[in-house]
Write a structure and sequence with these properties.
The chain has about 190 residues and is of the alpha/beta class. Helix content is about 45%, strand content about 25%. The protein is built from six helices and ten strands.
């Protein structure tokens, strides 16, 4: 009887240890999944810089491609890794803003994270008007509200939707190659 009680206590401890490790493993798996999503979004942004053409009147096709990240959170390492890389024979500069500057926003690509308030995002989109700034976000209904590219999590995979009408209004040309990779292409004006 003492032997059984000892084994029962042992099995309880093993079950508790397995449950704790399983819980830690799922937390680590979740953190790894989020990190993988951020890395994939950063890779997409880098490739968007390769496959989007800005009007020559915007910057003359010279100087760096300015990638602006609007996020109240710290800049994730994958986005920082884009800094200094090259697209279209131009260096990419990454800037992060917790709040957008009051002066003119000098960006080629503006990535709007989930953290800014919805009203503020709507104001910024209205202020951008038809400026040739590629707007990208992982916010729900971003494309439906005038954004150009929206990241979607589909079955644990990051995909994207393109609003070709909004990009056309801004004078941007998105390559057919990029459009073929899109989950969906919509044609609605801003």
């Amino acid at each position: 009887m003492i032997f059984r009680a000892g084994r029962t206590g042992f099995f309880r401890k093993v079950i508790l240890l397995v449950a704790l490790l399983w819980g830690c493993g799922s937390a680590n798996a979740n953190a790894a999944r989020v990190a993988d999503e951020e890395a994939l979004k950063a890779a997409y942004l880098y490739n968007f810089a390769k496959f989007v053409e800005w009007p020559a009147s915007f910057d003359g096709g010279e100087g760096p491609i300015e990638l602006c990240i609007w996020s109240e959170d710290a800049l994730d390492a994958p986005f920082a890794k884009i800094q200094g890389r090259s697209a279209q024979n131009r260096e990419i500069h990454v800037k992060q803003f917790a709040a957008l500057p009051e002066s003119r926003l000098a960006c080629h690509i503006l990535f709007i994270s989930q953290s800014p308030e919805h009203e503020t995002v709507a104001e910024v989109m209205a202020a951008l008007g038809d400026l040739p700034v590629l707007t990208v976000s992982d916010r729900e209904d971003f494309v439906a509200n005038g954004g150009m590219i929206e990241f979607k999590n589909v079955a644990q995979h990051i995909k994207f939707i393109v609003n070709i009408g909004a990009s056309r209004t801004a004078g941007l040309t998105i390559s057919a190659f990029l459009l073929q990779l899109a989950l969906e292409v919509r044609d609605s004006e801003k």
